[in-house]
Amino acid sequence: MDLVIATNNRHKVEEISEILSDLPIRTVPLSEFPDPPELIEEGETYAENALHKARTVAGFTKKWSLGDDTGLEVEPLGGAPGLYSARYAGEGVTFEENRKKLLSEMKGVPWKRRKAVFRCVMALVGPSGEEAVFEGTVPGYITEEDKGSGGFGYDAIFFLPDLKKTFAELDPSEKNQVSHRARALRRVRDHLKRLVAA
Q1: Number of Cβ within a 10 Å radius of residue 96
Q2: Fewest CB within 10 A of the end CB: N or C in the chain?
Q3: Buried b (16+ CB within 10 A) or exposed e, 175-195
Q4: pLDDT tens digits, residue range 65-107?
Q5: Residues 76-83: contacts with CB within 8 Å, 24+ apart?
Q6: Which domain does 50 fall in, by range?
Q7: Cα–Cα dist 193/80, whole Å
Q8: Relative orientation angle of helices 180-197 and 10-19, to the nearest 10 degrees
Q9: Can you give the CATH number for the domain in which 141 is found?
Q10: Cα(181)–Cα(177) distance, rounded to whole angstroms?
Q11: Would you state the pLDDT for residue 189?
Q12: How deeply is 108 buried, as exposed, middle or buried, from its count of CB atoms within 10 A (0-12, 13-18, 19+)?
């Protein structure tokens, strides 16, 4: 069974492929297909965005597709950047520019109030229109500066109290045990296992 990952983010493709590597499926990056459709995020929820991506790619490839939408929700900022996490500092910005904007807005906020949640919603869509949605979350705190050189996005400023490290300080195998994406993907895996066995 082929599963097309509905994203242009190679970091996400690598994480997803690694977490699903023990299943009898082949994860295929969208970039393997010529002239893939543009994946636009215009939904009002993570689920709407994830479903839109997966539906678009399933329709284009005629294969099973997995779409996701992920956001960082920072409590003192009223849940921002949330749905706009990837473009918080503007369209086409770097991960570093997004982190810098977030850290500047959190300046002076005491540690105990720097709570945040990483949320990942994944949508699995089949070529015949089958659909399922899964969610994973992980709580943490926003640091005052970048820590660690691994990961991507907001990983260097998202601190996990239980591990006393940011996501960027974990090696990939550690991160793939505890991340929001890993938690959503565990539910995806269970569903895929049933599909493959059917």
Answers
A1: 11
A2: C
A3: bbeebbbbbbbebbbeebeeb
A4: 999 999 999 999 999 999 999 999 999 899 999 999 999 999 9
A5: 76/106, 76/109, 76/113, 76/114, 76/115, 77/102, 77/105, 77/106, 83/41, 83/43, 83/44, 83/45, 83/46, 83/49
A6: 2-197
A7: 35
A8: 60
A9: 3.90.950.10
A10: 9
A11: 93
A12: exposed
Structure tokens at 188: 């995806």
Which class for 160: exposed (0-12), middle (13-18), buried (19 or more C-beta within 10 A)?
Answer: buried
Which two tokens mark 169?
Answer: 């300080």
Q: What is the mean pLDDT of the chain?
A: 95
Structural domains counted in the chain: 1
Give Dmax (Cα) for the chain: 55
Q: Is 2 a catalytic residue?
A: no
